[in-house]
Amino acid sequence: MLFSTKAEYGVRLMIELGRQPGSTPVSLNSVAEAERLPLSYLEHLVAKLRKAELVTSTRGAHGGYRLAKPAEEITMDAVVQALEGQIAPMECFHETPEGRVLCSHEGDGDRACSTKLLWTRVQNGVTKALAGTTLAELVEFSAPQGHSDAQVRAKAAVVHTL
Amino acid sequence: MLFSTKAEYGVRLMIELGRQPGSTPVSLNSVAEAERLPLSYLEHLVAKLRKAELVTSTRGAHGGYRLAKPAEEITMDAVVQALEGQIAPMECFHETPEGRVLCSHEGDGDRACSTKLLWTRVQNGVTKALAGTTLAELVEFSAPQGHSDAQVRAKAAVVHTL
DNA sequence: GCAAAACCGACCGCTTCGGTAGGATTTCGT
DNA sequence: ACGAAATCCTACCGAAGCGGTCGGTTTTGC
């Protein structure tokens, strides 16, 4: 598995928040019931999302969580990274602050790491897929069941979009 | 991390075999020394590659391993899959024998899994990167250090190819 | 027969995963 | 003022995988 259920649960959580159009906060409890996920576990996940400033919280009775930004501006690379940590295909891979990709094997020496080509391509593939998908898209995609034949076919087509 | 060092070590092993042009088998010991990896651990990895029919072995003195096919015909999706197991972004994802992608959440019901769009895109990104890279490419890319400026620039360019 | 090699299975310390538990704190409604 | 509802925080726990080691068996060339 590329990702653990942390990403899965966390993305579902974000989608659930994205469904709520108004500014009223959504309680974790209602999310847990809607998605049938353990509340206590969601608490851990939402904490990461909050630290990454993807959601905001209001405490106390009738409190809950809201998206920190409009769903159109939230891309999945930020969400998954908040939940799973740095996204890299391999242990030796890390991004410099400037965005360059480095492999710890190819230090000072001249000979490049033999596997770098492969992992760079994988990295590109994943980040393009994640950064190219917005929360708004997922909310729209999983909209309530008003599916005419045309809608179903449109959905089948959009999967391959990027 | 998307992948563990099993993929890293295994790919390096394959590259090492790919470097040997002749049909003489390469002993694991020489691979371990060349790549500075623990021999006993490589034994486990090469066993998976053998079961996947990516390498062949000859036992006894002066034995070792060879590629089962020419390096041009070995794509990295087969190698990584042999080492890491089924490649799927999420637990609930599995491919049917016909190649269709299924999510175990969306059984009989009508409402599609809300995260399917995302994971399908990720899956596509990864498999395209892996299947689009051959062992021959990696062997070529990490060729001995005859690097003129032109070669270095050519290598920098090919990373973004796909 | 000896040495070199592939094979095989058991074991081990460590970290992560998925989840639970118990409590502390904040806030709204009455 | 009080209690319910909610976020917040920390600790813990069993299971599984990771990265590796070890000891031994079998095959084969010289």
Features:
homodimer; 162 residues; mainly alpha; two-stranded antiparallel sheet; two-stranded antiparallel ribbon; 7 helices; 4 strands; DNA-binding
Mean pLDDT over the full residue set of chain A: 89
Distance between the termini of chain A: 22 Å
Radius of gyration of chain A: 19 Å
Query: Which oligomeric form is depicted?
Result: homodimer
Number of strands of chain A: 4
Low-confidence stretches of chain A: none
Number of helices of chain A: 7
Major sheet description of chain A? 2 strands, antiparallel
Strand order of the largest sheet of chain A: 1-2
Element string of chain A (H = helix, E = strand): HHHEEHEEHHH
Q: How helix-rich are the residues of chain A, as a percent range?
A: 40-55%
Q: How would you sum up this structure in a few lines?
A:
Two copies of one chain form a homodimer. With 162 residues, chain A is mostly helical.
Give the topology:
The structure is a homodimer of 162-residue chains.
Chain A: H1 5-19, H2 28-35, H3 39-51, E1 55-58, E2 64-67, H4 76-84, E3 93-95, E4 101-103, H5 116-131, H6 135-141, H7 149-158
Helix pairs in contact in A: 1-2, 1-3, 1-4, 1-6, 4-5
Chain A binds a DNA duplex (30 and 30 nucleotides) through α1 and α3.
